[in-house]
Amino acid sequence: LAAEDGDTRWTKSVCRYCGTGCGLYVGARGDQVVAVRGDPEDHNAGFLCVKGALLPQILSAPDRLLHPLIRKGNGFQRASWDEAMGLVAAKFQEAIQKFGPDAVGFYGSGQGLTEETYAANKLFKAGLRTNNVDGNPRLCMASATAGYVGTYGKDEPMGCYEDLDHADVFLIIGSNTAEAHPVLFRRIVRRKEAGRNVKVIVLDPRRTATSRIADLHLSFKPGADLAILNAMAHVLFAEGLVDDAFMKDQVAFGEGAEANKTRADYEKSLAACTPQAAAALAGCNAEDIVRAARWFGEKGRTATSLWCMGLNQRTQGVWVNQLVHNLHLVTGKIGVPGSTPLSLTGQPNACGGVRDGGALSHLLPYGRVVANEKHRAEMEKLWGVAPGTISPKPGLPTVDLFRALEDGKLKCLYVMCTNPGQSLPNVDRYRKAMRREGAFLVVTEAFHPTRTSELADVVLPAALWAEKEGVYGCTERRYHLLERAVAPRGEARPDLDILCDLAARLGHGKLLPFKAPAEAWTEILETARGTAYDFSGMTRARLQQSHGLLWPLPSAGHPGTKRRYVRGEDPFVPADHPLRMKFYGRPDGRAVVWFRPQRDPGEVVDAAYPLWFTTGRVLEHWHTGTMTRNCRELRHANAEALAELHPQDAARLGVKDGDRVRVSSRRGAETFRAKVAEGARLGVVFVQMHDPDHLCNRVTHDAVDPVSRQPEFKICAVKLEKA
Ligand code: SF4
């Protein structure tokens, strides 16, 4: 690369956007990033989608924040770092002294580097002694995590992207993979084009770019997915498409309230879950459910399931995740190349930094939980703090954290690398909480204004991805090193620097003594050693030489682990591989098939609010649009959130394409332009989530799954009128 490009310096990195984690090189001349190129030796084989390819533009965007800001009245005033950090430290100290440690909190992101998230977690849990540490992965993957932990005993997918190259059947549910994870979708398309009668089943109420390649698009009423998945299991048993030996050897039926159940009990529980009953409820064809089950269960063929926010962002998010796992467990389609459940992730480091690193309110690093005395003692020893330092009380998960800000229990909140003023459900409620008299909000951001930084008391300019160094971990347990390509713009600083500065000002400098991210990484390797995540052999030097490494990777010479659970012959993992095991996390080595009947979502349509409302992604934009709207080409592509509705709904409501319509729920309302679309489902309104000028989250529901505490962004009841 260097020879080809003269004076361009190329540093190794990874895409700043989605959880696919495409490897790339950043090309810089002087202090400017001038290009990116996909890494041909990484999993993405050199490919990037349009967002990744246009990454350089975000660094020099006109609304980059170049110096700290402190609120003065309704506006902001430029401040020095010392002044801004002094104010933040004083406010946090005062709140802790007056009201105790739980009066402060940290809200992080799946976009922070692992070292940054680790430092924040350590400072708040071991230094400030509060577990009020949560982050936006609570909004995107908490239900997937609970699904894995409950079913297999440990979090994170056991398979890898290579499974896409071996799958004969793809079951895609609650994911518009073509737009949200385009490089992975390309891999599915290639597999389909390669023959072998590959079948793609897409379950989605809407016709999408993903369903365009489907052999079967099963459109259903929002919230009926539990019924459909149970009906598929019913067909698998009824037609003998199950793996008796596998279930006998590796599966437990039920746990908790359903403990000690048998396979017969499970079959009995499915007796009434016929395709006809599910179809009547879901508004689809029973034959389609039967066909999907037959394709998924066909003997001798592999099946991979993919899902994302459509399943996770539900009040039954954990249950519906568990029902996907059930299909793999009863058919034994798991642990062989091409057969795996593979949840997709929205952010580039939600898996690595937050989920694995334990930066949620109930977690500690690498599989440990705050409620477990042994886990706390392990972390206290590793962190060099006195026994009893870490509180045994779980902190507040996201929605509760912002409710505590609303009711005054939480006085100070530090928000890093995320935009809750746009991304929270029922967002106006929490926007008010962030501006409540007596609440103190600190936001570290690369851009200003955002819908959160506009609410802050202090805004600290943060370095962007190519201006700093650290580790990102993507969907398939692959960790990448991002090298620094250029210096931060203006006075911006990496979040790790800012946190170390804050720690020193709060009297906890010894906890965060890091002069460079590499020092934090060395410490992180030790916290993972001996856990189920063990990547202690993943030194910075190895990461630098690699194109991403998959954990577990417990020693210097270890190759990394493509599949954590393996059945039979596997070309990638030898039979004597030390990480070959039964379902690793559970004492009996068996995975759990769960009994999960159909339940309504948190809100259903009625006479007052007769339409379903759902949200999703588009190819050209990402999350709250802060970065993608800073790219010229993307700003003009698909940037406005439109209210997509079915032609019959439009005709009934007297709405034409392009009309302004007001969409209201019991919580709030927003105005959009209407898009009358044949692919919309009758009775369902869809809006993309990326537009800061038209906030779909004014309408969405902040009810949460009782286990994962993940909110139900994907379903609520609305009415739609011409504006
Ligand atoms: Fe980036 Fe995701 Fe596109 Fe890959 S697929 S280039 S990670 S946005």
Structural features:
25 helices; 7-stranded mixed β-sheet; Rossmann fold; 18% strand; 30% helix; N-terminal domain of TfIIb; Dimethylsulfoxide Reductase, domain 2; 6-stranded mixed β-sheet; alpha/beta; 723 residues; binds iron/sulfur cluster; 28 strands
What does the model show?
GO terms for molecular function: 4 iron, 4 sulfur cluster binding; molybdenum ion binding; molybdopterin cofactor binding; nitrate reductase (cytochrome) activity. It catalyses: 2 Fe(II)-[cytochrome] + nitrate + 2 H(+) = 2 Fe(III)-[cytochrome] + nitrite + H2O. Keywords: 4Fe-4S, Electron transport, Iron, Iron-sulfur, Metal-binding, Molybdenum, Nitrate assimilation, Oxidoreductase, Periplasm, Signal, Transport. This protein is of the alpha/beta class and 723 residues long. The protein folds into 4 domains: 9-59, ADC-like domains (N-terminal domain of TfIIb); 69-138 and 349-444 and 452-512, Rossmann fold (3-Layer(aba) Sandwich), CATH 3.40.50; 142-344, 3-Layer(aba) Sandwich (Dimethylsulfoxide Reductase, domain 2), CATH 3.40.228; 611-700, Barwin-like endoglucanases (Beta Barrel). 30% of the residues lie in helices and 18% in strands. It has 25 helices and 28 strands. A 7-stranded mixed β-sheet has the order 5-4-18-17-16-6-7, sandwiched between helices. Strands 24-26-25-28-23-27 form a 6-stranded mixed β-sheet. A hairpin with a 4-residue loop joins strand 19 (470-473) and strand 20. The longest helix has 19 residues, at 81-99. It is globular and about 70 Å long. It starts with 8 loop residues before the first strand and ends with a strand. The relative contact order is 0.16. The mean pLDDT is 95. It binds iron/sulfur cluster. Iron/sulfur cluster binds at residues 15, 17-18, 20-22, 48-49, 51-52, 181-183.
